Amino acid sequence: MKKxxxxxxxxxxxxxxxxxxICTTPNADTSHLVIRFxxxxxxxxxxxxxxxxxxxxxNTLSYGIESTRDSIxxxxxxxxxxTSFRLIKDxxxxxxxxxxxxxxxxxxxNEDIIVLNYDNEELFISKACxxxxxFNNVNFGFNSDADNWILxxxxxxxxxxxxxxxxxxxxx
Amino acid sequence: MxxxxxxxxxxxxxxxxxxxxxxxxxxxTHKFWLRVGTDISKLVKTAVIKDYxxxxxxxxxxxxxxxxxxxxxxxxxxxxDETQVNFTTEGSYFKIGVDYNAYENWLNMxxxxxxxxRYGLSSYxxxxxxxxxxxxxxxxxxxxxxxxxxxxxxxxxxxxELIVGIKAExxxxxxxxxxxxxxxxxxxxxxxxxxxxxxxxxxxTVEDSKWxxxxxxxxxxxxxxxxx
Lengths: 172, 228
Description:
Chain A is mainly beta. Chain A has 1 helix and 9 strands; from the N terminus they run H-E-E-E-E-E-E-E-E-E. Chain A starts with a helix and ends with a strand. Chain B is 14% helix and 56% strand. Chain B contains 2 helices and 11 strands, in the order H-E-H-E-E-E-E-E-E-E-E-E-E.
């Protein structure tokens, strides 16, 4: 009996070692908004947006550099109920005929502003991961101007909880 | 559930042993007693560690030659600071069960090398002082923890516990003891949108596991009752 008790005490000491508190839960990070671009005339065909530059409204930085692609994943604000982005198609720098002087350069391209409204929900994941923000009741719109490259849109998923599929389709 | 049944069957077999031994030893004279004490590790931690307050009263009552009814009652308040969560848990617990003493004592000594089983019940609540929303994208610079406290509803956990330890008389009628506890919860009500990361009387919980461990350092006073 005494041996059994000694063994039990020893076992307890081993079991009491904690596993490391590192966040390993899959999909614990707050998801990006995924937008896919489709052809306006043939709405099931993906269509690339050429030289697209993404800049958050009220943000001094661009989100990455301009590139040609048929889908984007962009971050929504978690402390606000809305986020706006300037999506500039065919973004380019015009050197104004003076390639050596950058002071008179100006940007060209077709800018459309997209606006997202939503409700934030914090979902508990674990001690190591903390919470994850989920965007509910997602509402999408774009400002109309004289020369919109975005022609129409469709909200596919009003809840942003993962990045497996597109949440918004944009037709152009 | 299988573990639960296992513990109950152990408990029943201990209880039936108890009856047999009592009958066998009824011709001899032996003392019945009550031992009442406190967990000094909780008192020391309360004094030394900031954000920790705990107190426990424990007792065991000898009812047969090698068996005693044992229990603990206490309350705990503890703040835990992790990378993504900082929370305070506060609540009370009690544990009741039987100890088996495997030590052969001389004459009237009552030292113990014991193994015991307990049923434990804890009622408590959590306050989340600050929390982080996991966001590995730094574009909007919204990555600071949120410091608005959140209060959660009361939680209840009950568990089965295996306890092993020693108790030794160091002065006249004063015992010092050390024990280790292995626990497995059989019922746990998690609050909405949070988890019972710490349970008073049970200790820290590990994700996806029902197991918990604990250690105790007891000082207790021995009160003899009557002789048969």
